[in-house]
UniProtKB/TrEMBL annotation:
<dbReference type="InterPro" id="IPR011340">
    <property type="entry name" value="Cys_dSase-rel"/>
</dbReference>
<dbReference type="InterPro" id="IPR015424">
    <property type="entry name" value="PyrdxlP-dep_Trfase"/>
</dbReference>
<dbReference type="InterPro" id="IPR000192">
    <property type="entry name" value="Aminotrans_V_dom"/>
</dbReference>
<dbReference type="InterPro" id="IPR015421">
    <property type="entry name" value="PyrdxlP-dep_Trfase_major"/>
</dbReference>
<protein>
    <submittedName>
        <fullName>Cysteine desulfurase-like protein</fullName>
    </submittedName>
</protein>
<dbReference type="Pfam" id="PF00266">
    <property type="entry name" value="Aminotran_5"/>
</dbReference>
<dbReference type="GO" id="GO:0017000">
    <property type="term" value="P:antibiotic biosynthetic process"/>
</dbReference>
<keyword id="KW-0045">Antibiotic biosynthesis</keyword>
<dbReference type="InterPro" id="IPR015422">
    <property type="entry name" value="PyrdxlP-dep_Trfase_small"/>
</dbReference>
<feature type="domain" description="Aminotransferase class V">
    <location>
        <begin position="21"/>
        <end position="390"/>
    </location>
</feature>
Length: 396
């Protein structure tokens, strides 16, 4: 399936400013249909859900459409799509809910590879419950060996939290093997898909994720998070909620009023991803085809970037995972990561510097206390010419 990056870029007004945006892992740019979906919601008039009038009915439909769109993106059931302001907030909420059933002697497994949003909520919830935290470690290449989980699990393991892709090294662990081991031990699994979802096709069931978290602003949508689970599993959980609010699933996990205009943008963002190629079929089928083509495009750019960085004297790449998303994490000899980022910004190239919330990982790499590293992340609207601009700016 061909991938026309010029046609894709034409949908993004922000890309007209002349900058090369290699900051997608921190948040992507937004295409015009998403902007219009959000603005159009306000133009038409919007009310709260559950009312007797048309503006309220529009809100009801927007929420239903957003749940269906997220379900189509990751391979889930819309009745199991919990929406919220971001993945971190939702993870804290679910950690508190799950931990209500933990007791001293229970165990939770987390990893050094993960974004802190899939570490700290579980560590803190375990501490409150008196549960033990066990750590899965990375190897010298930044891989997360799946075989170590057998020794970390026991009949007292209640949850295994892990990532589908590292947000700084790009490492893609063998999630299916990890979750299979967790399920064999009777544990639930919580998979952080925030970085993984924008970079290839996603199948929550194949991954074995009891809970799969994603964030729309990482795949060209607004700042909305979602956690996807089986509705039957969610029905067994009792989060703290207002007595007057809905007890239905997934509504019982959503506090306050949802941001309806932004949810319209979520649906538009999923439609954007589904339309990256000319493949026909259901939206789920189009998403799988488009994300496969986007991944191939990104991997070509990633090879160009990594090969180019290896050829520049004084640059150290961190991590060498065998299977990774399109991201490079590096330092330049004689420069702090911030200085490198500022130098690139002067060349109209946007990158991030720092730990990027990979708190445990940057600590394990031994770079957290010295500013960590520079992250250049590729998304489907990036081009080979932009990669060359980045490399040229680092070489001069």
């Amino acid at each position: 399936m061909s991938f026309d990056v010029d046609a894709v870029r034409a949908a993004f007004p922000a890309l007209e400013d002349g900058y090369a945006y290699f900051d997608g892992a921190a948040g992507t740019q937004v295409p015009a249909p998403v902007i219009e979906a959000i603005a159009g919601t306000y133009r038409r008039g919007i009310g709260n859900v559950g009312g007797a009038f048309p503006a309220s009915h529009r809100a009801d439909q927007i929420v239903a459409d957003a749940r269906q769109a997220v379900a189509d993106l990751v391979g889930g059931d819309p009745r199991g799509v919990v929406l919220g302001p971001n993945m971190t907030t939702l993870t804290y909420r679910l950690a508190g809910t799950l931990a209500a059933g933990w007791s001293p002697g229970d165990e939770v497994v987390v990893t050094r590879l993960d974004h802190d949003a899939n570490v700290r909520p579980w560590v803190q919830a375990a501490a409150r419950a008196g549960a033990t935290v066990r750590w899965a470690e990375i190897d010298d290449n930044g891989e997360l060996p799946a075989d170590q989980f057998e020794s970390l699990l026991s009949e007292r393991t209640r949850l295994v939290a892990g990532t589908a892709a590292s947000n700084v090294l790009g490492t893609r662990p063998d999630v299916a093997s990890i979750t299979a081991a967790a399920h064999a031990a009777g544990a639930l699994t919580y998979v952080d898909g925030v970085h993984a979802t924008p970079h290839g096709p996603t199948d929550r069931t194949a991954l074995g994720a009891d809970f799969y978290a994603t964030s729309a602003y990482k795949w060209c949508g607004p700042h909305i998070g979602a956690v996807v689970a089986d509705p039957a599993l969610l029905d067994t959980l009792r989060p703290d909620k207002l007595a007057s609010s809905s007890d239905d699933v997934p509504n019982r996990f959503e506090t306050g009023t949802l941001p309806f205009a932004d949810l319209a943008g979520v649906t538009a963002a999923v439609d954007h991803l589904a339309g990256l190629t000319s493949h026909e079929g259901t939206r789920r089928e189009r998403i799988l085809a488009s994300m496969t083509a986007a991944e191939a495009h990104e991997q070509q750019l990633s090879s160009r970037l990594l090969d180019g960085l290896r050829g520049i004297p004084g640059i150290q790449l961190h991590g060498a995972p065998a299977r990774r998303t399109a991201v490079a994490y590096f330092t330049v000899e004689g420069q702090t990561p911030r200085e490198t980022a500022e130098r690139l910004a002067a060349a109209r190239v946007n990158v991030w510097n720092g730990h990027n919330y990979a708190w445990e990982l940057t600590g394990a790499l031994g770079i957290r206390d010295t500013g960590s590293a520079v992250r250049a992340s590729i998304i489907h609207y990036n081009t080979a010419g932009e990669v060359d601009r980045l490399l040229t700016a680092l070489s001069t």
